[in-house]
Amino acid sequence: MEFVEFTGSAYFRQILSLATLSGKSVRISKIRQKDEHPGLSDHEISFLRLLEKVTNGTLIDIDETGTKVTYQPGLLSGGDVEHDCHPDRSITYYLEALLLLASFMKKPLNAVLRGVTNDNVDPSVGCSLSL
After folding, report:
1. CA 44 to mean position of chain CA atoms
2. What's the pTM?
3. Sheet holding 4-7, edge to edge
4. Measured between alpha carbons, how far is residue 53 from residues 76, 112, 125 in Å?
5. Tens digit of each residue's pLDDT (9 = 90 or more) over 25-41
6. What is the pLDDT of residues 75-85, one digit of tens each?
7. What does the alpha-carbon distance between residue 92 and residue 124 come to, in Å, rounded to a whole number?
8. How far apart are CA 83 and CA 36, in angstroms?
9. 61 exposed, middle or buried (CB, 10 Å; 0-12, 13-18, 19+)?
10. Would you say 116 and 46 are in contact if contact means Cβ atoms under 8 Å apart?
11. 3-state class (DSSP) for residue 100
12. Phi and psi at residue 123, in whole multiples of 5°?
């Protein structure tokens, strides 16, 4: 299998969202490799789990250090989805990607996201919904 290769954690959501839309498999390596806490953060793992829920057949492999992720996207299925978002990031972190993917899903997406609605990093949910 061929993978599009990326390094680092920059644009993590965008890479995975676009890989899902295009059907291309990606490998992201050297994720915070030299940081005090290397590898994926908890909210990034939560985002991967959300992608699993809105797709059918997605394969995700995270190495034992969490510094390398292999993502093979499945088909965008949609339907009823419930997800507990990690409190490190606002629900908007997850919602922005779902808004991008939703119009390409096989069934209408009915997502229930639970978590923080406002933080210092992401726009508030209210701000996102008014766009």
Report:
1. 6
2. 0.91
3. 4-7, 26-29, 69-72, 59-62
4. 9, 12, 21
5. 999 999 998 888 999 99
6. 999 999 999 99
7. 7
8. 29
9. exposed
10. no
11. helix
12. -60, 155
